[in-house]
From TrEMBL:
Its EC number is 2.7.13.3. It is found in: Cell membrane. It is a multi-pass membrane protein. One of its GO terms (molecular function) is protein histidine kinase activity. SMART domains: HAMP (SM00304). CDD domains: HAMP. It holds the Pfam family HATPase_c. Keywords: ATP-binding, Cell membrane, Kinase, Membrane, Nucleotide-binding, Phosphoprotein, Transferase, Transmembrane, Transmembrane helix, Two-component regulatory system. The lineage of its organism: Bacteria, Bacillati, Bacillota, Bacilli, Bacillales. Gene3D superfamilies: 6.10.340.10, Histidine kinase-like ATPase, C-terminal domain (3.30.565.10). This is Sensor histidine kinase.
Length: 587
């Protein structure tokens, strides 16, 4: 609010300068911001696509490596030494165990030479266990006691086991295991081949050619890493537990929020194992090159601000020169010099304003005569304008009451309300005439009170006393009493449930007569009484409107008095001169 006040107090020249600054700087900022947004969106999209292509290639490399391991082990299982060993397992002959152990040692060596990632190979059979002679077997742990045995017994299929500490051989190396069941021409049970590959070598294979600050890793079907993640970001993302839910397709890319920061996710499912190649990188890292663009936008905006300040003064002086000439002419007119004229050779908007101003001055003399004549008719026009506000605002409540009485089968009361409403409108409209008789005005307010009694059953009662029967044909402005009794009902009886009372009294005294409306409502304090004379109702029925109408009809001859106090009710008295003939002539 203070900035708005400051702007209002500035001269038009300063406002022009501020406008120049606002337009230029906002244009630069909007253009730069839009450019930055488009560049960031394009860069992010391209980064996701390029990373996705890299992830797909890395996944293919890992798949090929795992497929190669499977082929090596298939070759291992169809070798003659392995076949001879299986045949003795089927027959239960353990007499040739050491012969088989020696024969298989060469096959073990060939497999490890064919794939350097292989750390060790272990074969468990009912006639004994087989492994390379160069490996030191951990005698403290039997294969049947490891979780590897538990897993293969549960799933009964070839499976890949996530990174773990090697329990079968000494050294406690970190390995990833492939557990296979043998291929043989007859069913054989209890024979398992465990191939351990180096976890660190497999980790390097997975990372591959992923660059640019991206973290590449594998997730299993449960959304956990295949091997422990070294990067803090990967651990946080996995611990958050929402990666599995986001990877609902065979491959894809998207962005996600983590600890208030945006990251880019790419993933591809492997064909050989039930694992997913995953890559995470920071969006801020992708957009780090755009920091230069941010500073460039800020620099351009600052330069535009400085340049605009330098040239805005000259522009403002040039643009305001004809306006200042027009201002001088207006000052002469203000001093009652109606001969002053604006001269300008420009045909722009200010020149057109000056031309119209000259035309206006030429017509002022004619308008002065017309204004004088218009004053004569002002009284009648204001009367009609104020009277037009006197439409029944309670129509909605009345119609609603009629509707519910009909719903309740109260036919006769509903008919009576319709007749009262019709009669109320007939008397209020008065065939378009502003002046009516006192008898019709009393009938009008009586119909209004009957309708309000139907809408607010038991709320109040009323009495109408006309002390002088001869006053019934006295001419008065229409809709005088209704605003007063409405004020009693809506405000005086606002907190009442029943027991309200309204009394209308008409009395004459010589050349004047008095109209009084009393109620036993909540009353008003002094501030409320003062407000009654000034505040206008949102519904157009304020007592202040009534006072203005009476002043327009009777001038100073109308007197308005209010006697009220809290919890003592209210009495409103209107004293008017008896000038019915004058009102009839005016109407």
């Amino acid at each position: 609010m203070n900035s708005l006040d400051y702007l209002r107090r500035q001269s038009f020249r300063n406002k022009l300068k501020i406008a120049f600054l606002a337009v230029i700087v906002l244009s630069v900022l909007m253009t730069g911001g839009l450019s930055y947004y488009i560049s960031a969106a394009t860069l992010e999209k391209n980064a996701l696509k390029l990373t996705q292509d890299t992830v797909v290639r890395s996944a293919q490399i890992v798949d090929e490596k795992l497929n190669k391991l499977m082929l090596i082990m298939m070759t291992f299982m169809i070798s003659q030494p392995f076949y001879d060993m299986l045949r003795d397992v089927v027959s239960g002959d353990d007499g040739r165990y050491y012969t088989h152990l020696n024969d298989l040692d060469n096959v073990f060596s060939q497999a490890r030479v064919a794939e350097p990632l292989i750390q060790s190979i272990y074969v468990s059979t009912p006639i004994g266990e087989f492994y390379p002679s160069s490996m030191n077997r951990n005698r403290l742990t039997a294969f049947e006691d490891t979780f590897l045995y538990e897993r293969i017994e549960q799933e009964k299929k070839n499976l890949w086991v996530e990174g773990h500490e090697d329990m079968l051989f000494s050294g406690k190396d970190r390995v990833i295991s492939l557990i296979l069941e043998p291929i043989f021409d007859t069913p054989v049970s209890g024979v398992y081949i465990v191939v351990n590959i180096r976890e660190d070598g497999f980790r390097k294979l997975v990372q591959g050619d992923i660059e640019g600050g991206a973290s590449s890793f594998l997730l299993n079907a449960e959304g956990e890493t295949v091997y422990p993640a070294k990067e803090k970001l990967v651990r946080q993302a996995v611990d958050a537990g929402n990666l599995k839910g986001m990877m609902n397709r065979s491959e894809g890319s998207q962005s996600f929020e983590l600890d208030g920061e945006t990251y880019l996710l790419n993933y591809v499912r492997l064909d050989i194992a039930d694992w997913t190649m995953t890559t995470i990188r920071s969006r801020a890292g992708v957009l780090k090159d755009l920091v230069v663009v941010k500073w460039l936008i800020a620099g351009v905006a600052l330069a535009a601000f400085i340049v605009t300040i330098l040239i805005s003064g000259a522009f403002a002086r040039y643009l305001l020169k004809p306006l200042q000439g027009l201002l001088r002419v207006m000052k002469r007119v203000e001093s009652n010099d109606l001969t002053a004229r604006f001269e300008s050779g420009s045909g722009d908007e200010l020149g057109q304003v000056g031309f119209r101003f000259n035309r206006m001055l030429e017509q002022i003399v004619v308008l002065i005569d017309e204004v004088t004549e218009a004053q004569t008719h002002k009284r009648t026009a204001e009367i009609k304008a104020l009277s037009s506000q006197m439409d029944p605002h309670f129509l909605y409540n009345t119609l609603n009451t009629i509707y519910w009485k009909l719903k309740l089968k109260q036919i006769e009361p509903s008919q009576q309300m319709v007749m009262s409403l019709s009669r109320l409108f007939q008397l209020g409209l008065n065939n378009g005439r502003e002046i009516t008789t006192l008898s019709k005005e009393l009938e009008h307010v009586r119909q209004y009170l009957e309708l309000q009694l139907s809408c607010y059953e038991g709320l109040f009662s009323y009495e109408i006393h006309a002390r002088e029967p001869g006053l019934s044909e006295l001419s008065i402005p229409r809709i005088i009493l209704q605003p007063l009794v409405e004020n009693s009902i809506l405000h005086g009886f606002h907190d009442l449930k029943h027991g309200g009372r309204i009394e209308i009294e008409i009395a004459g005294d010589g050349e004047r007569w008095t109209l009084a409306v009393r109620d036993n409502g909540s009353g008003m304090d002094e501030d409320q009484v003062r407000a009654l004379f000034w505040l206008e109702s949102k519904k157009g029925y304020a007592v202040s409107n009534l006072i203005r109408r009476l002043q327009l009809y009777y001038g100073d001859g109308a007197e308005f008095h209010v006697d009220s106090a809290p919890e003592r009710g209210t009495e409103i008295r209107i004293s008017l001169p008896k000038k019915g003939e004058q009102l009839n002539e005016q109407s």
